[in-house]
Amino acid sequence: MPSFGEQRAIVERWPRFPSRERVDEHRICLSFDDGPDPEGTPAVLDALEAIGARATFFMVGEQAEAHAGLAREVAERGHEIGLHGLRHVRPEELADPECDLRHGLAVLEQATGVVPAAFRPPYGHFTAPLYEAAAELGLEPVLWSAWGLDWEPIPAERIADLVLTDLQPGAIVVLHDSARYAPRASVQPTAEALAQIAAGAARLGVELQPL
Length: 211
Ligand SMILES: [Zn+2]
Description:
The chain is of the alpha/beta class. It has one domain: Glycoside hydrolase/deacetylase (TIM Barrel, Alpha-Beta Barrel), CATH 3.20.20. It is built from 8 helices and 8 strands; from the N terminus they run αβαβααβαβαββαβαβ.
């Protein structure tokens, strides 16, 4: 365990990690992390269809491998596929980030037929080696500008309120279509919140589209 001083020095040595947190002002991008998951993704897909929105799904390789049919369905229903890691681990735990990302890309391509162009690390947390590996593979780093705190067990109204607080034209919203890595949460409230979020986007006069 490094001392506080040593830790501070490491942090200061790291470059800043620029990442995309917005889209253009004519759109809002809804993004869903941690799937695909038979217990969450279908409800989100149906809710998106009901509001006529297309979104970006940052999939975890191990999830796409286990639920390849569902991964493909997400792509076939017109949504964009991004990479959220091969496994859902903290970047400090990756012995070889580039190998991990390559493997994740291959798994997602095999499952969905699409090669992702965007990467969001688990927990939105980059390390220098992970950042460099993503750049090396031509993956665009993407974070967000609004969230619904839906990894906590909170009701749909609260999720929608939180998203709407930070919802501006050009926003990237992070939500989740799986509770696998946040077992206290559930995807149902997220799916239920989408109608209210769509109404908020309509009031701003923008469409809900992928990256
Ligand atoms: Zn995640």
